Amino acid sequence: MDNCRTIIPMRLLKLSTRLRVLVFVVIALGFVAFFSYNLEGSVLSKKEKLDITSRIPMKGPGKPPILSYWISGSEGEGKKIFRLLKAVYHPRNRYLLHLDAGSRASERNELARLVRTEKVFRAFSNIEVMGSSYAVDRTASSVVAATLHGAAVMLKIWKDWDWFITLSASDYPIVTQDDLLHAFTSLPRDRNFIDHTSDLGWKEFERFDKIIVDPSLYMDKNLKYFVASETRPTPDAFRIFTGSPWVILSRAFVEQCIYSLDNLPRKLLMYFTNVAYAAESYFQTVICNSPEFQNTTINNDLRYFVWDNPPALEPHFLNLSDYRAMVDSGAAFARRFVEDDPIIRKLDNEVLKRMPNGVSYGKWCSGPTRDQKGNKLDACSTWGDINSVKPRATGKKLRRLIARLVWDETARSNQCKV
Ligand SMILES: *[C@@H]1O[C@H](CO)[C@@H](O)[C@H](O)[C@H]1NC(C)=O
Ligand SMILES: *[C@@H]1O[C@H](CO)[C@@H](O)[C@H](O)[C@H]1NC(C)=O
């Protein structure tokens, strides 16, 4: 949020010593004024201000991981994103919010303003809103570029996260962050949740032989892709895998995609430029063609959704009739939801224990839950230990599910085979 990186022009460095001292003093005073302004501007109590170390997540064996969420949306989705952010909030995690070119600058500023108004968000400074924007077509390849950009930014600004999770404004969690962190605590940090198959079926022709052009890669506005009249053969230099576009990637694999000296991630990025729904295949194909990573895949996206019959391009909007099956599914997230649908309110009340406008409840919330009159209070407006979590039955169930998935993968060793 607050950008305090300063660039000192070269010329300054050549000034006389006395001037240098003066310049230093002025800059130092500037910093002092800046930080004291920030502290005065906040509503943190003295004790909370002093406790900076307690706001840095501890890492190590037995400690929960740190998750980094890339949450993206488009025009009119700022409010939805903000609600989703609160629903998946935990002080350990890191969040990067992105509104694409469909949204106006005022909408992005408003989202950044909303983030700044929350005391907890300011105290932990673990949320960033992307200030600039660019066009994205979620059904083409520009969304892969946007996801990689989000991942690169998160690698750069936060050195401590373990997993990268992609969410859209239409997603919502169906477990608390305490549940999810608990389920991931004993998982080897190199695992990647990537739903995948090499059985392309009808997609072979429709997706991979057809050539598309995605104008959102080179125009300012979000535009829909168009299909070229030529077709091309299915590649034989690598094997294509396809699956769910919603992934949970290990830090090591994200680094592979962004920094690797191996040419595969870049080569595939260029190939997928002309593939419709590239987000359903890019990470799948990179990981399954990388011998050093393919054994780290878990063939599951931990998401719950329901297809209409016959299936449309997107799963159907979940409503109250789906509630039981959704909560019992054992998944971590569900999609898609209509803004403020009763099913979301029910999730807030019953699963996330989220006060109206509050964040999802966790063990770190240390405030009183009721006042003397028995009225509910937002326990998360003050905080305690952020290094321990308290899972409920759903969290334990998710941990068992993940343990079973990991065991299945290693026992059958058929990752990237089917
Ligand atoms: C991945 O698993 C296969 C099958 O168990 C094994 O042959 C291969 O050596 C493993 N690769 C790595 C990099 O560990
Ligand atoms: C939920 O959606 C399904 C399918 O769209 C519909 O048949 C059902 O009546 C809806 N239920 C409620 C409670 O709105």
Automatic annotation (TrEMBL):
Assigned GO CC terms: membrane
Protein name: Uncharacterized protein
Pfam families registered for this protein in UniProt: Branch
UniProt entry tagged with the keyword Transferase: yes
InterPro entries membership: GLCAT14A/B/C (IPR044610), Glyco_trans_14 (IPR003406)
Predominant subcellular localization, coarse grouping: membrane
Subcellular localization(s) per the UniProt record: Membrane
Record-linked PANTHER family: GLYCOSYLTRANSFERASE (PTHR45719), OS04G0301700 PROTEIN (PTHR45719:SF39)
Keywords, sorted A to Z: Glycoprotein, Glycosyltransferase, Membrane, Transferase, Transmembrane, Transmembrane helix
One Gene Ontology molecular-function label: glucuronosyltransferase activity
TM region(s), chain numbering: 21-39
Topology in membrane: Single-pass type II membrane protein
Signal peptide: none
